[in-house]
Amino acid sequence: MKAYKIAAIPGDGIGTEVISAGVEVLQALASRDGSFEFKVDQFDWGGEYYKRHGRMMPENGRDLIKKHDAILFGSAGHPEIPDHITLWGLRLAICQPFDQYANVRPTRVLPGITSPLRHVKDKELDWVIVRENSEGEYSGVGGRVHQGSPLEAATDVSMFTRAGVERIIRFAFKLAQARPRKLLTVVTKSNAQRHAMVMWDEIAAEIAREFPDVTWDKMLVDAMTMRMVMKPQSIDTVVATNLHADILSDLAAALAGSLGIAPTANLNPERAFPSMFEPIHGSAFDIMGKGIANPIGTFWSAVMLLEHLGEKPAADRLMTAIEKVTADPRFHTPDLGGTARTTDVTAAVIDAIHGSNR
Ligand code: ATP
Hints:
Layout: E1 2-11, H1 15-33, E2 36-42, H2 47-53, H3 61-65, E3 70-75, H4 83-95, E4 102-108, E5 126-132, E6 136-145, E7 153-159, H5 162-178, E8 183-188, H6 196-208, E9 215-220, H7 221-230, E10 237-240, H8 242-255, E11 263-267, E12 275-279, H9 296-309, H10 312-326, H11 342-353
Parallel strand pairs: 1-2, 1-3, 3-12, 5-10, 8-9, 8-10
Antiparallel strand pairs: 4-5, 4-11, 6-7, 11-12
This protein binds adenosine-5'-triphosphate.
The site of adenosine-5'-triphosphate has 17 residues, from loops.
Protein backbone atom coordinates (compact mmCIF):
# COMPACT_ATOMS: atom_id res chain seq x y z
CA MET A 1 0.00 0.00 0.00
CA LYS A 2 1.24 3.49 -0.85
CA ALA A 3 1.79 5.71 2.19
CA TYR A 4 1.84 9.46 1.71
CA LYS A 5 3.42 11.75 4.27
CA ILE A 6 1.39 14.93 4.69
CA ALA A 7 2.55 17.93 6.73
CA ALA A 8 -0.50 19.67 8.22
CA ILE A 9 0.09 23.29 9.24
CA PRO A 10 -3.26 24.61 10.52
CA GLY A 11 -1.85 28.02 11.53
CA ASP A 12 -4.22 30.50 13.16
CA GLY A 13 -7.88 31.40 13.52
CA ILE A 14 -10.24 29.16 11.58
CA GLY A 15 -7.18 27.53 9.98
CA THR A 16 -7.19 25.02 12.86
CA GLU A 17 -10.88 24.24 12.36
CA VAL A 18 -10.81 23.73 8.61
CA ILE A 19 -7.55 21.77 8.54
CA SER A 20 -8.74 19.24 11.12
CA ALA A 21 -11.87 18.81 8.95
CA GLY A 22 -9.63 18.43 5.88
CA VAL A 23 -7.50 15.74 7.53
CA GLU A 24 -10.65 13.83 8.54
CA VAL A 25 -11.86 13.89 4.96
CA LEU A 26 -8.49 12.76 3.58
CA GLN A 27 -8.43 9.85 6.03
CA ALA A 28 -11.99 8.90 5.01
CA LEU A 29 -10.93 8.86 1.36
CA ALA A 30 -7.92 6.68 2.13
CA SER A 31 -10.04 4.16 4.00
CA ARG A 32 -12.68 4.19 1.24
CA ASP A 33 -10.05 3.65 -1.46
CA GLY A 34 -7.90 1.09 0.33
CA SER A 35 -4.88 1.42 -1.98
CA PHE A 36 -3.12 4.25 -0.15
CA GLU A 37 -2.86 5.74 3.31
CA PHE A 38 -1.91 9.08 4.81
CA LYS A 39 0.56 9.64 7.58
CA VAL A 40 -0.23 13.14 8.79
CA ASP A 41 2.30 15.11 10.86
CA GLN A 42 0.91 18.19 12.62
CA PHE A 43 2.96 21.39 13.00
CA ASP A 44 1.70 24.05 15.39
CA TRP A 45 3.38 26.97 13.63
CA GLY A 46 1.78 30.40 13.31
CA GLY A 47 0.82 33.38 15.44
CA GLU A 48 0.50 31.54 18.76
CA TYR A 49 3.87 29.87 18.12
CA TYR A 50 5.31 33.34 17.43
CA LYS A 51 4.07 34.60 20.79
CA ARG A 52 5.89 31.76 22.54
CA HIS A 53 9.07 31.63 20.44
CA GLY A 54 9.44 35.00 18.67
CA ARG A 55 9.23 33.41 15.24
CA MET A 56 6.45 31.89 13.16
CA MET A 57 8.18 28.54 12.64
CA PRO A 58 11.36 26.96 14.00
CA GLU A 59 14.65 27.76 12.32
CA ASN A 60 14.88 24.23 10.93
CA GLY A 61 11.15 24.23 10.06
CA ARG A 62 11.63 23.69 6.35
CA ASP A 63 13.96 20.75 7.00
CA LEU A 64 11.17 19.11 9.00
CA ILE A 65 8.76 19.19 6.06
CA LYS A 66 10.91 19.07 2.94
CA LYS A 67 10.62 15.28 2.61
CA HIS A 68 6.83 15.24 2.93
CA ASP A 69 4.74 14.44 -0.14
CA ALA A 70 2.52 17.50 0.32
CA ILE A 71 1.67 20.27 2.75
CA LEU A 72 -1.88 21.10 3.86
CA PHE A 73 -1.89 24.67 5.13
CA GLY A 74 -4.62 26.59 6.96
CA SER A 75 -3.97 30.28 7.46
CA ALA A 76 -1.39 32.51 9.11
CA GLY A 77 -2.42 35.72 10.79
CA HIS A 78 -2.83 37.09 14.29
CA PRO A 79 -4.65 40.22 15.51
CA GLU A 80 -1.66 41.18 17.69
CA ILE A 81 1.08 40.56 15.09
CA PRO A 82 1.60 42.73 11.98
CA ASP A 83 0.42 40.98 8.79
CA HIS A 84 3.77 41.31 7.02
CA ILE A 85 5.43 39.32 9.83
CA THR A 86 2.89 36.50 9.77
CA LEU A 87 2.94 36.35 5.96
CA TRP A 88 6.71 36.49 5.45
CA GLY A 89 7.42 34.39 8.55
CA LEU A 90 5.40 31.36 7.53
CA ARG A 91 3.56 31.18 4.23
CA LEU A 92 6.14 32.97 2.12
CA ALA A 93 8.94 31.39 4.16
CA ILE A 94 7.72 28.05 2.79
CA CYS A 95 6.51 29.05 -0.72
CA GLN A 96 9.62 30.88 -1.81
CA PRO A 97 12.46 28.56 -0.70
CA PHE A 98 10.43 25.55 -1.87
CA ASP A 99 10.09 27.31 -5.23
CA GLN A 100 6.33 26.84 -5.36
CA TYR A 101 6.21 29.26 -8.26
CA ALA A 102 2.83 28.29 -9.69
CA ASN A 103 -0.13 29.26 -7.59
CA VAL A 104 -3.21 27.69 -9.15
CA ARG A 105 -6.68 28.93 -8.20
CA PRO A 106 -9.72 27.26 -9.75
CA THR A 107 -13.06 29.07 -9.56
CA ARG A 108 -16.45 27.57 -10.31
CA VAL A 109 -19.96 28.20 -9.14
CA LEU A 110 -20.63 24.88 -7.39
CA PRO A 111 -24.08 23.25 -7.46
CA GLY A 112 -26.47 24.89 -4.98
CA ILE A 113 -24.36 28.04 -4.60
CA THR A 114 -25.59 31.38 -5.92
CA SER A 115 -23.14 33.72 -7.56
CA PRO A 116 -23.63 37.43 -6.89
CA LEU A 117 -23.62 37.72 -10.69
CA ARG A 118 -27.31 37.12 -11.27
CA HIS A 119 -27.00 36.56 -15.00
CA VAL A 120 -24.43 33.76 -14.65
CA LYS A 121 -25.88 30.39 -15.50
CA ASP A 122 -24.54 27.07 -14.31
CA LYS A 123 -21.09 26.25 -15.73
CA GLU A 124 -20.69 29.71 -17.31
CA LEU A 125 -18.10 30.60 -14.74
CA ASP A 126 -15.31 28.03 -14.83
CA TRP A 127 -11.90 29.62 -14.50
CA VAL A 128 -8.40 28.78 -13.37
CA ILE A 129 -6.24 31.70 -12.34
CA VAL A 130 -2.49 31.05 -12.39
CA ARG A 131 -0.59 33.38 -10.12
CA GLU A 132 3.17 33.88 -10.38
CA ASN A 133 4.21 32.96 -6.87
CA SER A 134 7.94 33.53 -6.56
CA GLU A 135 8.90 37.04 -7.61
CA GLY A 136 7.33 40.19 -9.02
CA GLU A 137 5.76 42.59 -6.56
CA TYR A 138 6.37 40.14 -3.66
CA SER A 139 10.07 39.62 -4.29
CA GLY A 140 10.87 41.41 -1.04
CA VAL A 141 13.28 43.82 -2.72
CA GLY A 142 13.22 47.33 -1.32
CA GLY A 143 13.91 49.21 1.83
CA ARG A 144 13.15 52.10 4.17
CA VAL A 145 15.40 54.93 5.20
CA HIS A 146 15.11 57.82 7.66
CA GLN A 147 12.26 56.09 9.47
CA GLY A 148 10.08 58.47 11.41
CA SER A 149 11.65 61.61 9.96
CA PRO A 150 9.93 63.84 7.37
CA LEU A 151 12.58 62.60 4.92
CA GLU A 152 11.45 59.01 5.30
CA ALA A 153 11.43 57.07 2.04
CA ALA A 154 10.40 53.52 1.19
CA THR A 155 10.54 51.34 -1.91
CA ASP A 156 9.03 48.00 -2.89
CA VAL A 157 10.69 46.97 -6.11
CA SER A 158 8.84 44.56 -8.40
CA MET A 159 11.46 42.22 -9.74
CA PHE A 160 10.76 40.04 -12.76
CA THR A 161 13.25 37.67 -14.33
CA ARG A 162 12.99 36.23 -17.82
CA ALA A 163 13.37 32.72 -16.35
CA GLY A 164 10.58 33.38 -13.82
CA VAL A 165 8.19 34.83 -16.38
CA GLU A 166 8.91 32.16 -18.99
CA ARG A 167 8.25 29.30 -16.60
CA ILE A 168 4.94 30.65 -15.29
CA ILE A 169 3.65 31.55 -18.74
CA ARG A 170 4.65 28.15 -20.10
CA PHE A 171 2.93 26.49 -17.13
CA ALA A 172 -0.25 28.50 -17.85
CA PHE A 173 -0.22 27.62 -21.56
CA LYS A 174 0.15 23.92 -20.67
CA LEU A 175 -2.73 24.14 -18.23
CA ALA A 176 -4.92 25.97 -20.75
CA GLN A 177 -4.05 23.33 -23.34
CA ALA A 178 -5.18 20.56 -20.97
CA ARG A 179 -8.60 22.19 -20.46
CA PRO A 180 -11.43 21.69 -22.97
CA ARG A 181 -11.64 25.31 -24.18
CA LYS A 182 -7.85 25.78 -24.66
CA LEU A 183 -8.19 29.47 -23.91
CA LEU A 184 -5.67 31.65 -22.06
CA THR A 185 -5.78 35.31 -21.04
CA VAL A 186 -2.45 36.93 -20.16
CA VAL A 187 -3.01 39.80 -17.73
CA THR A 188 -0.55 42.68 -17.28
CA LYS A 189 -0.48 46.42 -16.84
CA SER A 190 1.88 47.05 -19.71
CA ASN A 191 0.53 50.48 -20.53
CA ALA A 192 1.61 52.07 -17.22
CA GLN A 193 4.34 49.65 -16.13
CA ARG A 194 6.47 49.90 -19.20
CA HIS A 195 9.44 47.66 -18.39
CA ALA A 196 8.66 44.33 -16.74
CA MET A 197 5.07 44.19 -17.96
CA VAL A 198 6.15 44.80 -21.54
CA MET A 199 8.61 41.94 -21.06
CA TRP A 200 5.64 39.76 -19.95
CA ASP A 201 3.76 40.59 -23.15
CA GLU A 202 6.81 39.79 -25.29
CA ILE A 203 7.51 36.52 -23.50
CA ALA A 204 3.84 35.51 -23.78
CA ALA A 205 3.97 36.04 -27.55
CA GLU A 206 7.16 33.93 -27.75
CA ILE A 207 5.79 31.05 -25.65
CA ALA A 208 2.46 31.14 -27.52
CA ARG A 209 4.29 29.82 -30.59
CA GLU A 210 4.92 26.56 -28.69
CA PHE A 211 1.14 26.13 -28.23
CA PRO A 212 -0.52 26.73 -31.60
CA ASP A 213 -3.71 25.01 -30.45
CA VAL A 214 -4.24 27.43 -27.53
CA THR A 215 -6.17 30.63 -28.25
CA TRP A 216 -4.81 33.48 -26.16
CA ASP A 217 -5.36 37.15 -25.60
CA LYS A 218 -3.92 39.98 -23.49
CA MET A 219 -5.74 42.19 -21.01
CA LEU A 220 -4.82 45.02 -18.73
CA VAL A 221 -5.62 44.12 -15.14
CA ASP A 222 -8.16 46.93 -14.66
CA ALA A 223 -10.07 45.89 -17.78
CA MET A 224 -9.88 42.28 -16.58
CA THR A 225 -11.87 43.08 -13.42
CA MET A 226 -14.66 44.45 -15.64
CA ARG A 227 -14.55 41.45 -17.94
CA MET A 228 -14.78 39.06 -14.97
CA VAL A 229 -18.01 40.74 -13.90
CA MET A 230 -19.54 41.58 -17.29
CA LYS A 231 -18.46 38.66 -19.49
CA PRO A 232 -17.45 35.79 -17.18
CA GLN A 233 -18.21 33.19 -19.85
CA SER A 234 -15.47 34.65 -22.10
CA ILE A 235 -12.74 33.58 -19.64
CA ASP A 236 -11.12 30.19 -19.04
CA THR A 237 -7.46 30.12 -17.93
CA VAL A 238 -5.76 33.32 -16.74
CA VAL A 239 -2.12 34.06 -15.91
CA ALA A 240 -1.00 37.16 -14.03
CA THR A 241 1.68 38.50 -11.72
CA ASN A 242 1.86 37.81 -8.01
CA LEU A 243 -0.03 40.99 -7.02
CA HIS A 244 -2.47 41.20 -9.91
CA ALA A 245 -3.52 37.56 -9.59
CA ASP A 246 -3.80 37.90 -5.82
CA ILE A 247 -6.43 40.59 -6.30
CA LEU A 248 -8.18 38.95 -9.25
CA SER A 249 -8.52 35.66 -7.41
CA ASP A 250 -10.21 37.25 -4.39
CA LEU A 251 -12.68 38.82 -6.82
CA ALA A 252 -13.09 35.43 -8.48
CA ALA A 253 -13.75 33.75 -5.13
CA ALA A 254 -16.41 36.33 -4.28
CA LEU A 255 -18.06 35.91 -7.69
CA ALA A 256 -18.20 32.16 -7.11
CA GLY A 257 -20.31 32.73 -4.01
CA SER A 258 -17.98 32.82 -0.98
CA LEU A 259 -14.38 33.15 0.04
CA GLY A 260 -14.99 30.02 2.13
CA ILE A 261 -15.20 27.80 -0.96
CA ALA A 262 -12.13 28.79 -2.93
CA PRO A 263 -9.07 26.50 -3.01
CA THR A 264 -5.49 27.01 -4.07
CA ALA A 265 -2.37 25.01 -4.82
CA ASN A 266 1.17 26.35 -4.51
CA LEU A 267 2.98 24.05 -6.89
CA ASN A 268 6.60 23.21 -7.43
CA PRO A 269 5.89 21.58 -10.81
CA GLU A 270 9.36 19.99 -10.98
CA ARG A 271 8.65 18.24 -7.64
CA ALA A 272 12.05 19.11 -6.19
CA PHE A 273 10.14 20.25 -3.08
CA PRO A 274 6.71 19.48 -1.67
CA SER A 275 3.79 21.53 -2.95
CA MET A 276 1.38 23.26 -0.59
CA PHE A 277 -2.43 23.26 -0.66
CA GLU A 278 -4.60 25.75 1.21
CA PRO A 279 -7.96 27.45 1.18
CA ILE A 280 -7.76 31.01 -0.20
CA HIS A 281 -9.36 32.56 2.87
CA GLY A 282 -7.48 33.95 5.85
CA SER A 283 -7.74 33.39 9.59
CA ALA A 284 -11.24 34.96 9.84
CA PHE A 285 -10.92 35.88 13.52
CA ASP A 286 -14.48 37.22 13.47
CA ILE A 287 -15.85 33.66 13.33
CA MET A 288 -12.99 31.77 15.02
CA GLY A 289 -14.03 29.15 17.57
CA LYS A 290 -17.71 29.36 16.65
CA GLY A 291 -17.66 26.13 14.66
CA ILE A 292 -19.20 27.78 11.58
CA ALA A 293 -16.18 28.07 9.26
CA ASN A 294 -16.93 26.75 5.81
CA PRO A 295 -14.53 23.82 5.22
CA ILE A 296 -15.30 23.49 1.48
CA GLY A 297 -12.27 25.60 0.43
CA THR A 298 -10.05 23.18 2.35
CA PHE A 299 -11.81 20.11 0.90
CA TRP A 300 -11.41 21.47 -2.64
CA SER A 301 -7.72 22.14 -1.85
CA ALA A 302 -7.51 18.48 -0.78
CA VAL A 303 -8.87 17.55 -4.24
CA MET A 304 -5.92 19.45 -5.75
CA LEU A 305 -3.55 17.70 -3.33
CA LEU A 306 -4.84 14.28 -4.42
CA GLU A 307 -4.52 15.22 -8.10
CA HIS A 308 -0.94 16.31 -7.45
CA LEU A 309 -0.21 12.95 -5.80
CA GLY A 310 -1.65 11.18 -8.84
CA GLU A 311 -4.67 9.83 -6.94
CA LYS A 312 -7.17 10.92 -9.59
CA PRO A 313 -10.03 8.53 -8.68
CA ALA A 314 -9.91 9.71 -5.05
CA ALA A 315 -9.74 13.35 -6.21
CA ASP A 316 -12.81 12.82 -8.41
CA ARG A 317 -14.63 11.04 -5.60
CA LEU A 318 -13.99 13.96 -3.25
CA MET A 319 -15.05 16.58 -5.81
CA THR A 320 -18.28 14.66 -6.47
CA ALA A 321 -18.90 14.46 -2.72
CA ILE A 322 -18.30 18.22 -2.34
CA GLU A 323 -20.73 19.02 -5.17
CA LYS A 324 -23.37 16.69 -3.73
CA VAL A 325 -23.08 18.45 -0.37
CA THR A 326 -23.07 22.04 -1.69
CA ALA A 327 -26.19 21.20 -3.74
CA ASP A 328 -28.07 20.61 -0.47
CA PRO A 329 -28.85 23.89 1.35
CA ARG A 330 -29.06 22.01 4.68
CA PHE A 331 -25.27 21.89 4.52
CA HIS A 332 -24.69 25.57 3.83
CA THR A 333 -22.68 27.39 6.50
CA PRO A 334 -23.65 31.00 7.43
CA ASP A 335 -21.32 32.54 4.80
CA LEU A 336 -23.61 30.88 2.23
CA GLY A 337 -26.76 31.97 4.02
CA GLY A 338 -27.34 28.69 5.87
CA THR A 339 -27.10 27.47 9.44
CA ALA A 340 -24.89 24.39 9.07
CA ARG A 341 -21.80 23.96 11.19
CA THR A 342 -18.32 22.90 10.08
CA THR A 343 -18.91 19.46 11.58
CA ASP A 344 -22.22 19.02 9.68
CA VAL A 345 -20.57 19.78 6.33
CA THR A 346 -17.62 17.51 7.15
CA ALA A 347 -19.88 14.62 8.18
CA ALA A 348 -22.00 15.07 5.02
CA VAL A 349 -18.91 15.01 2.77
CA ILE A 350 -17.60 11.90 4.54
CA ASP A 351 -21.00 10.21 4.12
CA ALA A 352 -20.98 11.10 0.43
CA ILE A 353 -17.44 9.66 0.12
CA HIS A 354 -18.69 6.38 1.54
CA GLY A 355 -21.60 6.49 -0.88
CA SER A 356 -24.45 6.68 1.62
CA ASN A 357 -27.28 9.17 1.46
CA ARG A 358 -27.97 11.52 4.30
P1 ATP B 1 -6.22 37.47 6.50
O1 ATP B 1 -5.62 38.79 6.80
O2 ATP B 1 -5.74 36.37 7.40
O3 ATP B 1 -6.22 37.11 5.04
P2 ATP B 1 -8.90 38.61 6.47
O4 ATP B 1 -9.72 38.90 7.67
O5 ATP B 1 -8.39 39.70 5.62
O6 ATP B 1 -7.76 37.60 6.92
P3 ATP B 1 -10.43 36.42 5.82
O7 ATP B 1 -9.93 35.84 7.08
O8 ATP B 1 -10.26 35.58 4.63
O9 ATP B 1 -9.75 37.75 5.50
O10 ATP B 1 -11.95 36.78 6.04
C1 ATP B 1 -12.70 37.71 5.26
C2 ATP B 1 -14.19 37.52 5.59
O11 ATP B 1 -14.65 36.31 5.02
C3 ATP B 1 -14.45 37.42 7.10
O12 ATP B 1 -15.64 38.10 7.43
C4 ATP B 1 -14.60 35.95 7.34
O13 ATP B 1 -15.46 35.63 8.39
C5 ATP B 1 -15.16 35.43 6.02
N1 ATP B 1 -14.63 34.07 5.77
C6 ATP B 1 -13.40 33.77 5.34
N2 ATP B 1 -13.24 32.45 5.25
C7 ATP B 1 -14.38 31.89 5.66
C8 ATP B 1 -14.83 30.54 5.81
N3 ATP B 1 -14.04 29.49 5.51
N4 ATP B 1 -16.07 30.33 6.26
C9 ATP B 1 -16.88 31.35 6.54
N5 ATP B 1 -16.53 32.65 6.41
C10 ATP B 1 -15.29 32.92 5.98
